[in-house]
Amino acid sequence: MNIVLLSGGSGKRLWPLSNDIRSKQFIKIFKGEDGSYESMVQRVYRQIKKVDKDATVTIATSKTQVSSIHNQLGTDVGISIEPCRRDTFPAIALATAYLVDVLGISPEESVVVCPVDPYVEDEYFTALKALSDQADKGEANLVLMGIEPTYPSEKYGYIIPATKDNVSAVSNFKEKPSIEVAKDYISQGALWNGGVFAYKLKYVLEKAHELIDFKDYQDLFDKYETLTKISFDYAVVEKEDKIQVMRFAGEWKDLGTWNTLTEAMEENIVGKGQMNETCKGVHIVNEMDVPVLAMGLTDVVISASPEGILVSDKEQSSYIKPYVDGIVQRIMFAEKSWGNFKVIDVEPESVTIKVTLNAGHSMNYHLHNHRDEVWVVISGTGKTVIDSVETPVKSGDVITMKAGCKHTVVADTELKLIEVQLGSDISVDDKVKYELK
Amino acid sequence: MNIVLLSGGSGKRLWPLSNDIRSKQFIKIFKGEDGSYESMVQRVYRQIKKVDKDATVTIATSKTQVSSIHNQLGTDVGISIEPCRRDTFPAIALATAYLVDVLGISPEESVVVCPVDPYVEDEYFTALKALSDQADKGEANLVLMGIEPTYPSEKYGYIIPATKDNVSAVSNFKEKPSIEVAKDYISQGALWNGGVFAYKLKYVLEKAHELIDFKDYQDLFDKYETLTKISFDYAVVEKEDKIQVMRFAGEWKDLGTWNTLTEAMEENIVGKGQMNETCKGVHIVNEMDVPVLAMGLTDVVISASPEGILVSDKEQSSYIKPYVDGIVQRIMFAEKSWGNFKVIDVEPESVTIKVTLNAGHSMNYHLHNHRDEVWVVISGTGKTVIDSVETPVKSGDVITMKAGCKHTVVADTELKLIEVQLGSDISVDDKVKYELK
């Protein structure tokens, strides 16, 4: 099976765990099969490989997520990078071209497109395989997954199938309705539209060429910024007559808010935390090094990270976005392709961060025009390259770098260092990258 | 007026703001007259000086609080240091001897003893002056303050006065009662015993010599550890016949728990925080650098510090102690006579702290046997002394110190530095102090 996972943008609704550069799909919050924590994207990837170990998985996303994807899934996964956000039709067209032109998959093969963040059981991925097999038959140009509703939700669009068969023609699409209207749809046999569908690669390539003037993947990538924003639903689905829906009756959750996310958590406490016996329905998700103590609370979520601390009634947590939009502060934590960094102290003329480099990795070779830096290696071994001079380093070594000096560190083992940035004009934008020869 | 403020031990009931080395009386949480925040001890000291600018104020406390007292009150205040905890009779005897033998106050003068942490208005201190004046008259050996009860509390002992006069003989003392019994006491005209009393210095000196074999203050100090633990109430108050009570009808609050502390706060948010409009009766006290967001909560206190994060229903917060007793971790923040330090990163073989030295101050001249250290100065100017060699330092300077090397830094201006401690056996006990010649 070929599968494209659509990995969306910054999820402020799960602040403080998600932020402008860390999306919810990368938060390690679910107990995996081996007892360690895994993220949504890791869980989904593991489930796909379990159902179909030969599946070709490609993630369609923006540049900012590439580091996190490689960190969490390794380098076997394909990534179709959107140079900028242009809604779902350009994104799916680009990913389709990537599969054909970069991965060399035959345009006759089918692909399943689905969001990266459903919280589902393995049977869901078996259903995706069935969706792909149905697309292979060529009875329809598009085969949608229709999820059997468990309640009259206002959050989803609805698909009205022509028959009650497992696979049916689509009679009609409906926008997100009110609860009353949703009840009516359901009585007519309507299914939720979870944004999952399968098609033969050549079909979307043809549609793309109809709407966009481009030669191949690279050409589409190069002119991506000039494309018009248009959704796949509007550009393709609503105009297609040869369209089928396949039923799915298994468990399916969309973890968009703290309320729904905590419902999917197997444990009430992730990270350092304790609650007394008068707490009911309380979840603690703590990424800080200090303990959280909760007493006498009901239906409250507490989450702490280097970005901030949320304490919210679970129902209320769905209204978080405008409050988080109002919080302006520097990024305090980030995963990078080479490891991660965490801001540990901020002063007017200095910033201190802790850098963790994964074994075998290095940060970019770079310089800063407006700040000096000091590194103190606190664990591991590797080498530094300072203005082209290589020096082996180990725990306890100190490296001082004046502004203008090119520098990097290469980790042999996992290597951690404290970096003190010094200057009156410290900015993440003050960085000039070079190739390391 | 001479006044002794009894400054008690670690107040875990206000965790995470108070801990083993920072007691609740030093937390800056109250809006002072100039708009900046002040602690309980600063508020009380300011109020005493307002009512009687010539008051001699002595704080009876343990060694661990001396740095905080000097930081917050300066060096004019007297401190009677208890070498160890031996209950209130030895503590009051030692402070009394301190007033006579160290400060040279005549044994004929009176002193008022009161806790360091009442939350009161200025009139309370006017009442303390009246208490002292009453003791001066010599009608009784002890004059107690009796606080007019505002409700039948189980938290306080009660004093039954002989008459309804402003000053009366004491008829009887009662232990902390049940609410029903408290109602009965109050109907008999009982007053709360707030632990405030006045006496002529010579009176307690005599009592002390009756019970303890000692020459003078220094002798009592030297043998303090050998003394029996005994309360002032048991050793003196309950055995004294010549005893009076003076009424006080003004506002008086005992801020022992988050519940009562937040009642006394003028603002709902201290530090970085915001709450949405569905929050009611919520207090945020945040000493961390990251924001707290509260949504949809009622009667909840949220407090965050480098020690941890508390989220508690206000009523429940009074049951905090056993939970905090169960939290074992290093001290993450401390005020010192020379400034303060904060732990900002902990790894198995390194600890990184941020040190702030006040202008004109220096840390102890010391060495560590089992760890190397690196300092990166991030602001200010001063000098380091490393194995007797003085070197001027400024922002950006890096100092590396091997285990066994004696070191200190002296701040000319306020000076901040990042200290990285490196070694497999890092402990606060690994410190040998030297005199700086």
Would you kindly provide a written description of the structure presented here, covering whatever features stand out?
- The structure is a homodimer.
- The first copy, chain A, has about 425 residues and is α+β, with helices and mostly antiparallel strands.
- Chain A has helices spanning about 40-50, 65-75, 90-100, 120-135, 180-185, 200-210, 215-220, 230-235, 260-265, 320-325, and strands spanning about 1-5, 30, 35-40, 55-60, 80, 110-115, 120, 140-145, 155-160, 165-175, 190-200, 245-250, 250-255, 270, 275, 285, 290-295, 300-305, 310-315, 335, 340-345, 350-355, 365, 370-380, 380-385, 390-395, 400, 405-410, 415-420, 430-435.
- The longest helix of chain A has 16 residues, at about 120-135.
- The interface between A and B is large, with 60 and 60 residues.
- Strand 17 (about 290-295) of chain A pairs parallel with strand 19 of chain B.
